[in-house]
Amino acid sequence: MPYPQSPRWRRRLPVPLAAATAVVLLVSPAAATAPQPAAPADAGPVAGEQASVVEVLLDGTAELDALVATGVDLDHHVERTEDGVVAHAVVTPSEAARLTAAGFTLGDALYRPEDSRARIAEREATIAAHVAENREFAAAASDPTAPDVSDVKIIRADYYTSGTSQILSVEAKWAQGQTASNTLTVERDSGPGTAMGSGGTQTISRFVDAGVYLYHRGAATVTARPEYVRITSPTGDVAVAKVREWLPTPETSPEPPGYQKDFVTSYLTPTELYARIHQLAAEFPDLAEIVELPYKTNGYRRHAQAVLGAANASRVAVDSLAWGHEGGNDISVELANPGPGNATTGVTVIGSHIRVNLATDAAGAVTSTAAQVVAALNSGAGSLVRAYTYRGSPGTGVVAPAPRTPLTDDLSAPASVSRDPHPVYAIRIGKHRDGTKTGVLAYAQEHAREWVPPLVTIETAERLLRNYAHDGRTKQLLNNLDIWIAPSINPDGGHYSFYDFNSQRKNMTNHCPLTGAADFLGRDSWGVDVNRNYTEYSLFDGYSGASSSCTSGTYAGPSELSEPEDKNLDWLASRPNIKFSMNLHSSGNYFMWSPGAYALPDRTSAPRPSLADESFFWGASSRILTAIKQHRNMAVTPARTGPISDVLYSAAGNSGDMLWYKYGIYAWNFEVGTSFQPQWDEAHDETMEFANGLVELMRVARDYASDKKRPESTLTIAPSSTPGMVNVTFDVSEPAAVFYTLDGAAPTYESTLYGSAGVREGGETLTVPAGTRVNWFSVDAAGNVENNYQPDGNGKNYRKGQAVLPTS
Ligand SMILES: [Zn+2]
After folding, report:
1. DSSP of 422-485, one letter per residue?
2. pTM of the entire predicted model
């Protein structure tokens, strides 16, 4: 938890929509009999009441039917649990009271009117802040008394090498960027002391997402490292910035001679990944152990299925009741033409073969419709199969005779891949695995088809374990950290992607209804996007970048944390000592953190990290990306580094956001490499370079855990364009928060937190009356306070200054 001492600085958590603020209205003993089949006669809307979404806890299907019969507004969510059925009802307080009076048991309120109000208030605050920021920038830029203020501002100018290329990446904000579509031209010098423009020019383009202008950006190949760049905006305003080097080569390698690495030689299936970590834990029992996570998956298994017929209205879909490997695959279905003479529809079952004799007219033509065949199958062979018309069709089409057709689960993995609900494993690495050390979590393969990220976790685990005995720096990591590595969060989908459908992204669980895509032909589209099923800023909270369609690639599932894969990660993240995490995906060579979601139409973002947290993310990121680059000089670009929703897109309900917002974990996301399943030489290089980065994350965590260094800060006073005022900024020696007062009071954690000037920018400029007393202190991510000041005590050793211009 960053800066845990600071109640004010603690991230403003969203209103807990799924919080257990229960309106639990327990059934009284008298009412605890079977519910009445219908609500009382006075049931009806009460004007002026707002509705909540409330769980209704039901014993079983009969009680569900009784609930439906009351006519209550259900939101389609019906979940069958071991204890019965949970439905969601959208009810007002008086409707809830009537349900209770009728004998129903209500559970938690999942969404309340105050949730909506809080959402709206948050949205309005965000919009207001955005508008204020733009107005401030535009006003400053057009202030004739302020010749020093330009309408264009260079946010970043990064020079870096990647492969054999030299590249300059520039980001700039222009006050007219929301409304004017102009590109901006960047002039370069060609090194120290050279003329501006001598290094050529490049153009940068608007980065607009969800209709909101964020900034201009663009990268170009250069032939020399510029020292300065200049942008002249379309209105003639000018901005100049010094070029920084992005990911410079460090002077010393963190890997001493004899450091062992390069442990993977091929892609590994989830079964093989788990076997590998079991071997490692067995080989290093003092340093590692295997943890089976609490939830098994639903399993690499399906029911055996077939769809008979061609035209939708005459198609018959058939599913075995047994799993395919438990007898379903032995079942076959035949639609037989019995020949002439007014035959009636009939079903015979011989062993596991189901023969449907179709009805005919006097001339011997088949007359059975799909709906009739479905009914005949369900009544004549209902102990073996379930039949239904195709995708909600009424089934009025006459079926065609079909030869004996085997049902199949269509799963091709060898028998060595278990068909049972699958355990999910993590390897826990560290000399002291008792929760007393700073925890680090790395996890991969939320998305099944991403085959390189699991290898990065295996390579990292082996480097840590095999170098412990002879490398002092590795020993420091394992002696001081509690490292959790889960190489495959989604083993069912992972197996499916190896053996059946290479593009599988989601898990294998079929949430489609029989009237939808539940049939055999829908099988490659089923599944929940495991990385959209988490609890923070999700689809269910109104955020963008996930789908409610069961066949969508970003299907968020029926509810938050509906999937065992997601429950497992939630359990891992709730280990109280975990402070850092890496969510490994592919591809794109991105490196990202929160916020990862926004709501449309106004792109209302999840809360941004504080300036200090953002600085910490950037600082650690530069270490991690430098380590990655050391393998083959591949640079993750500055344009692909930053908050997910700044550099990529919104991903509602992703795991990184859950770890950051719900658990206060510094949570990063890798998008490894260039494709999901690259050729092995490339996959191997990606594994090596991102394992460098993951080991460096461990070093970041180690430095955090041992950080006793106090931050130092300085106050800078500059002239303001407003008479009688001066501009004040703070600088800190390391990523650290600054709390300040302007009224002479001692600063505390309740004081104002120094903020960011804007997206991807540094600290804000405070404009205050000349002579203002400024009192402040800084505190770093590990909780070290400048000067050892105690903000909650009576000490006077905070920093003090006065907002007066230095005399020259
Ligand atoms: Zn992914």
Report:
1. PP-EEEEE-S--SS-SEEEEEEE-SSTT--HHHHHHHHHHHHHHHSTTT-HHHHHHHHHEEEEE
2. 0.75
